[in-house]
């Protein structure tokens, strides 16, 4: 396995801002543990970050949020990227759409994406689908992903397992596997 750790949309608007969510706030420590271990193991850490502009179609559904250049689009301080981490701005649910993500993963010789972040049933799910379509193996960390509603989170995990062949691990299960 040649993994990359992907942190999906852990930006101010989705953690404590406009769409602030206690379920997302609860996963911050687990994502931090995974980031620290990834750095120790020299696993690439990639942040996908909503960075919308006025013409983005998504705004018609959700209203203004995570606007490029605004504080709401910034990664939360608790998960601040380090200098060798990667940050990819995205304008839709998937970080693969019209970004350099796939080229970056291929250039890093990654074959497995480890997905964390929010929202499990929207952005995490769409990144899982696009990773699957591009031939990557997928691991989703169940206690380092969250949705607005726990039932949506569980439904999305089940879907990714059944339809994208994703492996579903807890934070500690992945940490143990990294120690093998």
UniProtKB/TrEMBL annotation:
Domain of life: Bacteria
InterPro entries: Isochorismatase-like_dom, Isochorismatase-like_hydrls, Isochorismatase-like_sf
Record SUPFAM superfamilies: Isochorismatase-like hydrolases
UniProt entry keywords in alphabetical sequence: Hydrolase
Single Gene Ontology MF annotation: hydrolase activity
TM spans (from-to): none
GO cellular component, one term: cytosol
Domain Isochorismatase-like: 4-162
A Pfam family this chain is assigned to: Isochorismatase
Source species of the chain: Dictyoglomus turgidum (strain DSM 6724 / Z-1310)
Name of the featured protein: Isochorismatase hydrolase
Transmembrane keyword on record: no
């Amino acid at each position: 396995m040649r993994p990359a750790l992907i942190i999906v949309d852990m930006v101010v608007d989705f953690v404590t801002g406009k769409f602030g969510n206690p379920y997302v706030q609860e996963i911050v420590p687990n994502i931090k543990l995974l980031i620290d271990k990834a750095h120790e193991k020299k696993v690439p850490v990639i942040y996908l970050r909503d960075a919308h502009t006025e013409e983005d179609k998504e705004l018609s559904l959700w209203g203004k949020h995570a606007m490029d250049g605004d504080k709401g689009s910034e990664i939360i301080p608790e998960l601040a990227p380090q200098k060798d981490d990667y940050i990819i701005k995205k304008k839709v649910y998937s970080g693969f759409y019209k970004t350099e993500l796939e080229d970056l993963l291929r250039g890093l010789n990654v074959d497995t994406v480890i997905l964390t972040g929010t929202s499990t049933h929207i952005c995490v799910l769409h990144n899982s689908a696009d990773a699957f379509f591009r031939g990557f193996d997928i691991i989703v960390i169940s206690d380092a992903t969250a949705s607005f509603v726990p039932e949506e989170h569980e439904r999305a995990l089940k879907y990714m397992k059944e339809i994208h062949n994703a492996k579903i691990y807890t934070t500690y299960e992945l940490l143990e596997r990294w120690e093998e």
